[in-house]
Specification:
Low-confidence stretches of chain C: none
Chains: A alpha/beta, B alpha/beta, C alpha/beta
Strand content of chain A: 5-15%
Strand order of the largest sheet of chain A: 12-11-10-13-14
Number of strands of chain C: 8
Helix content of chain A: 40-55%
Largest interface: B-C, 38 and 33 residues
Number of strands of chain A: 14
Radius of gyration of chain C: 13 Å
Number of domains of chain C: 1
Radius of gyration of chain A: 21 Å
Structural class of chain A: alpha/beta
CATH superfamily of chain C: Phosphohistidine domain
Shape of chain C: globular
Oligomer: heterotrimer
Strand content of chain C: 25-35%
CATH topology of the largest domain in chain A: Aconitase, domain 3
Distance between the termini of chain A: 62 Å
Number of helices of chain C: 3
């Protein structure tokens, strides 16, 4: 693997031990993937998920007192400790949670990481088409690749840190245009109405597609040209639950998919599937794992909601009240929460009994990790990410009802899963 | 070819959706016909300029009522905007109007009008971002059709994202938000987006060492010479960041009303010079070197007295990176008590600047990080602010601010790097 | 007296008649370049600096100005200092928007360059709806 002078110096320890260790890791990864050289990256995203003492120790060893060389944002925290009471965190857990979260916050602050605490950080650093970056958190990576046209592999926590510290990454995988072409065509069946798709539909679609992809990038043919970034957001992680394709194309919509020919790099698709009503319904069913209709938590905003989504939720809740037995949690990032507050959405949602949290991972984080302490046995959600992750992370402990946004809200009001 | 409307658009124009939609559609159709548009195009977003910006002028009778009435007419019967709608900064952040010296300027007190306007837009569903950089919140896709005013936003949307938006105006941006349409001409046509003016950065200049002021000066100079032709910048660093591109875009609208530029190797419609030019020869070429850079600086500088009364950073609104740089450049020193230091930004950037300690560093030093308002909105007060607060000379790193401060703000300007500006804020003198 | 007819494209509806004021070289911002008390052109170094545009048929190459400019134009109309009509070689959309919301007739893209046909002082009759400009020459060419 070719290293330029600066990279050699880094690897030989001339920029310090921490950079040397990070560079060593990156070179090893590069060699494993036959990368011919290193490239510079201009932005990184980390997950602040080193919650156990062992992991935090490893993290500290890697980072020491190093500073990030490039703008670096960070994923949500497990909890927003400032709102512990509202979240219902038991007193007995608070000290420990406070300890593990505050040390993570301090460590990232020390590194110069931008405290975004969101899985949708793109407001703080606009990515250009073709920009090489090092991102972790599958939904962040895939959104950047697919929707924004930037280039990142799915970095692990360690390689993302290494890239943030060195400003480098090995030139392999999705950094090469040749690896970004579509391989599998997914046609939207004519019995579906993509113009009316809810966030849940997009998620279920990606979940279903993911089962047949393996490592091949899908090209969706037939989705609405009016689809929004929020819709695309919900297609990210579900795709990767059963595949390792960290990118997708939506014909006529995403930047690298102007025509079928261009998207497939001039080749024929290796495979072609149609997803119609039956397949989509089947995906919805698979994503539901709950037994009884009683629900404890309705969780929206996985990934973090944008302002339109919060507005839609507020509209659905206007003048209504969430059932007393149900918690309604909505995850978002802080700038969106600021705007939502200004627009009166927060007041509407909270008057109805819902809670809008910033800076934390409401779904796959808080709800699942603390399910016992919080008495959460059944979660309702419009997120195929959350629904898809529950059987993996909380099998037997938590069951999921998965459905469209308005069904989730209607269920929150009724206290039971289902539309009125 | 006459402009043909869809059935829905016919309904809008004939008043079936109320008179506000009808008047808005009529305005857009007339403009379309003036520019040979054959049809309207659906947009996904529009960026508004609040009309209260007009009420800050020194005119004796507050004209706010005229514009309030006009907006009422254009939105009669409209309960909410049809597309994602964002808004430009207000003339003043009502909560800080007194602190910033905007009250008691004589005939003008814009705060009431601002608050009223803010309420009205909110009721109609506009997202209260109050920034000239809505692209820090709303990111369009390449090729997406948008409406909107504010030349910075338009230029950035076209240049950075490859979205399609004309350099519209306050009235048409409102009409676009009401109808969800704009006439399909200008930037909405691929053919009109190609570059015509090649700007080659002379090898004598190392653009990798450019400060924000240098980018501003480059764009300002080119804008003055452009005569409406879209520039293609060739020879700039390939790793330009958002802040730098922002400063390349902003001055284009000032001197020349240009809706976009191309930066070869950086922006999506300019992977190569040939593609940026659409396969045609450039109509003209500018070699931009040290001499041209110095000339631009001279044009942007009208002060001759070292004394500095105010420093303005954040035109267009500062990014998080810039807040950090200002904090770092202040280095714990205090702003001279004789100097007003304003750093303008969006509220959604300020909060993260607060988390990183940047805002505290700037405000503890005696500076103001102002949000929801224009960083140099005092210049819209056409001298009233400058006279009342003895703002004879303003230092800035922004070509757009310098231009407006000179022309309507009745103050002289020092133009230079952020570092020079912050140093001037501390010492009260320009070096 | 010599009468010349030129045809063009409508920017803003209406008919008007009056005395021409012509700027041959300089673009004009109806908002920023004109004082909203006196109605005089205040743009520094402008060909028309100090001249009054109110009630005139204003002829200039093209418009300029910020995206808030149309409101300045509207304001000018409200105080009765707006021109009666505008003729450009090729209009700037911000000028057109201002003309439309102010109800001021405007034409551009004429079959002859208006700056070569019209001189300050000529009488101009304009029907923007039909796209017709009639110029009655006052000075001897």
């Amino acid at each position: 693997m070719y290293l330029n002078r600066e990279e050699k110096r880094m690897l030989e320890g001339e920029c310090g031990e921490l950079i040397q260790k990070s560079m060593d890791l990156l070179v090893k990864v590069g060699e494993a993937y036959d990368a011919e050289r290193m490239i510079e990256v201009t932005y990184a995203h980390l997950i602040a998920w080193e919650l156990t003492d062992i992991l935090f120790e490893l993290f500290s060893q890697m980072t020491g007192n190093a500073k990030v060389r490039i703008p670096t944002t960070v994923n949500p925290l497990l909890f927003n400790m400032g709102r512990a009471k509202e979240l219902g965190i038991p007193e007995s857990s608070m000290t420990e949670l406070e300890r593990i979260l505050s040390r993570l916050i301090k460590a990232h602050d020390k590194m110069g990481v931008i405290p975004t605490y969101t899985c949708h950080p793109h407001y703080i650093y606009e990515l250009r088409i073709g920009e090489h970056v090092a991102l972790t958190e599958s939904n962040v990576v895939m959104f950047a690749n697919a929707w924004l046209g930037a280039r990142s592999n799915i970095e692990g926590a360690a390689t993302a840190i290494a890239s943030a510290i060195t400003g480098k990454t090995p030139y392999y995988g999705l950094h090469l245009i040749g690896n970004r072409y579509g391989k599998v065509q997914i046609d939207i069946g004519r019995d579906l109405k993509p113009d009316q798709f809810d966030y849940a539909d997009y998620g279920a679609l990606a979940f279903w597609a993911g089962k047949s992809l393996k490592d091949r990038i899908p090209v969706y043919n037939g989705l609405s040209r009016k689809m929004t970034p929020a819709h695309a957001k919900y297609m990210c992680t579900p795709q990767i639950l059963h595949s390792c394709a960290a990118m997708f194309h939506i014909l006529g919509v995403t930047p690298e998919a102007p025509t079928l020919e261009a998207t497939f790099g001039g080749k024929k698709p290796e495979d072609r599937f149609i997803i119609g009503k039956k397949q989509l319904e089947s995906a919805f069913e698979t994503l539901c794992s709950a037994k009884g209709r009683e629900i404890d938590l309705v969780c929206l905003g996985c990934p973090h909601c944008n302002i339109q989504e919060i507005g839609e939720i507020a509209q659905l809740l206007r003048g209504k009240k969430v059932s007393r037995q149900v918690r309604l949690w909505i995850g978002t990032n802080e700038p969106t929460r600021i705007l939502a507050k200004r627009m009166g959405f927060i007041d509407t949602i909270e008057n109805a009994g819902g809670l809008v949290f910033a800076d934390m991972c409401a779904g796959t984080g808080a709800a699942l990790r603390m399910s016992e302490a919080l008495g959460i046995r059944t979660v309702a959600t419009n997120s195929a990410t959350l629904a898809g992750v529950v059987p993996i992370r909380a099998r037997g402990r938590v069951g999921v009802w998965f459905g469209k946004t308005r069904v989730c809200i209607a269920s929150a009001i009724r206290g039971k899963w289902g539309n009125n | 070819m006459p402009l043909s409307l869809t059935l829905e658009e016919e309904h809008m124009l004939s008043g079936d959706y109320g008179s506000g939609v009808q008047k808005s559609m009529d305005l857009l159709v007339q403009i379309g016909e003036a520019f040979g548009a054959e049809r309207m195009v659906e947009i996904s977003s529009s960026h508004l300029i609040p009309y209260e910006i007009m009420s800050a002028s020194r005119f004796g009778v507050p004209p706010a009522k005229w514009f309030e009435d006009w907006v009422l007419e254009m939105t009669e019967g409209v309960s909410s905007f049809r597309v994602v709608t964002t808004i430009n900064p207000a003339i003043v952040n009502p909560q800080r109007a007194i602190e910033l010296g905007f009250k008691e300027l004589g005939e003008i007190d814009p705060t009431e009008s601002v608050i009223k306007g803010m309420e009205k837009y909110k009721r109609m569903g506009a997202i209260p971002v109050y920034t000239c950089c809505p692209f820090l919140i709303f990111t369009p896709r390449k090729g997406e059709h948008l409406g909107g005013a504010e030349s910075v936003a338009v230029a950035f949307y076209n240049t950075f994202f490859g979205a399609k938006v004309n350099r519209e105006s306050g009235p048409t941006a409102l009409a676009a938000a009401v109808t969800g349409r704009v006439p399909e001409f200008g930037m909405h046509h691929l053919d009109s987006r190609y570059g015509q003016l090649l700007v080659e950065i002379n090898r004598g200049l190392d653009s990798n060492k450019f400060t924000y002021a240098d980018y501003n000066a480059l764009a300002y100079y080119v804008g003055e010479k452009a005569q409406g032709r879209i520039p293609v910048f060739y020879g700039l660093s390939q790793n330009l960041n958002v802040t730098q591109i922002k400063y390349l875009c902003a001055p284009l609208g000032v001197s020349a009303g240009l809706p976009m530029c191309h930066i070869v190797g950086v922006t999506p419609e300019a992977p190569t010079v040939e593609i940026a030019l659409g396969g045609r020869r450039a109509e003209d070429k500018i070699e931009f070197g040290v001499e041209q850079l110095q000339e631009a600086y001279r044009q942007l500088t009208t002060a001759n007295d070292e004394r500095v009364d105010a420093v303005t950073i954040g035109c267009p609104h500062a990014t998080l990176q810039e807040l950090g740089e200002c904090a770092q450049l202040l280095g714990g020193e205090k702003v001279s008590p004789k100097v007003k230091l304003w750093v303008g930004t969006a509220e959604t950037i300020r909060f993260i600047g607060e988390r990183m300690g940047y805002v505290k560093a700037i405000e503890d030093a005696g500076g103001f990080v102002v949000t929801d308002m224009c960083a140099h909105s005092y210049s819209y007060c056409r001298g009233a602010f400058s006279r009342k607060h003895a703002l004879g000379t303003v230092a800035t790193n922004s070509a757009k601010a310098a231009h407006y401060i000179q022309i309507i703000g009745s103050a002289k300007t020092w133009f230079g790097s952020t570092e020079q500006c912050i140093k001037a804020a501390i010492s009260g003198r320009w070096q | 007296m010599e009468k010349i007819v030129i045809k063009g494209r409508r920017c803003s509806k209406g008919v008007a008649q009056g005395e021409a004021v012509v700027s041959y070289n300089d673009a004009l911002a109806m908002g920023a370049d004109i004082d909203r008390e006196t109605g005089l052109v205040i743009a520094p170094r402008h060909e028309l600096q100090g001249k009054e545009v109110g009630g005139k048929i204003l002829v200039f190459p093209t418009g300029r100005g910020s995206t808030a400019d149309p409101w300045g134009f509207y304001w000018l109309m409200k105080i009765g200092k707006a021109p009666k009509a505008i003729i450009n070689i090729k209009a700037n959309p911000t000028t057109v928007a201002g003309a439309i919301i102010s109800g001021i007739p405007m034409i551009h893209e004429l079959d002859k360059n208006p700056l070569e046909v019209i001189e300050t002082g000529d009488i101009v009759c304009l029907d923007a709806n039909k796209g017709i400009v009639e110029v009655i020459k006052v000075k001897k060419s």
